[in-house]
Write a structure and sequence with these properties.
Blueprint (H helix, E strand, L loop, with lengths): L1 H18 L3 H18 L33 E4 L2 E4 L7 E8 L2 H13 L5 E5 L4 E9 L2 H14 L10 E5 L2
Parallel strand pairs: 1-6
Antiparallel strand pairs: 2-4, 3-5, 3-6, 4-5
Length: about 170
């Protein structure tokens, strides 16, 4: 009788394990289905139209650089230098803003490795750390530096949001 009871329990245990389907197969099926849908979607052909190049003679004696637009937006904030020894001037190019000081210091270190002399400043009113890439006395130079910074890193979307800061004392 005891052997029969053990045999029946063994059969029940085996039956339980055999009857359960693996959840891995369900995930695998869902993954394969999503992959097939992705492959089935038509890929958008990206074709770039290129304008023809026209040669134009330019007299270099008369060529003057285009004036920088003075309509660039500038944020006015009262900030204090936290990290860095660069003298903060009236207009600064801000490459990043962080609520955590360590994150701002990390970007400063990265910019320093890239050849910049970055500075971390703190805006107590907004509790934000700003990473200043460069600082200038006049707005036109700051605009040019900001545009050059954006152009140097076209694939960094965070740097494409670089902005100008006017320091309030």
């Amino acid at each position: 009788m005891r052997k029969m009871l053990v045999l029946m329990m063994s059969v029940c245990v085996v039956w339980t394990f055999i009857s359960c389907k693996s959840s891995e197969s369900a995930y695998k099926k869902a993954y394969e289905k999503a992959k097939q849908q992705e492959l089935a979607e038509p890929q958008a052909d990206v074709t770039e139209e290129v304008a023809p190049v026209v040669a134009v003679s330019v007299d270099t004696a008369e060529a003057t650089p285009e004036p920088v637009a003075d309509t660039a937006p500038v944020r006015q904030e009262k900030v204090t230098v936290v990290v860095g020894d660069q003298g903060l001037k009236a207009y600064s190019v801000v490459g990043g803003s962080f609520g955590v000081k360590a994150n701002a210091e990390g970007l400063k270190d990265w910019l320093d490795a890239e050849g910049y002399t970055a500075t971390v400043v703190f805006n107590a009113e907004k509790a934000m750390y700003r990473v200043v890439v460069s600082s200038f006395d006049d707005k036109a130079a700051a605009i040019q530096a900001r545009d050059a910074f954006k152009a140097k890193y076209p694939n960094r979307s965070d740097f494409q949001g670089a902005w100008l800061l006017y320091r309030i004392d």
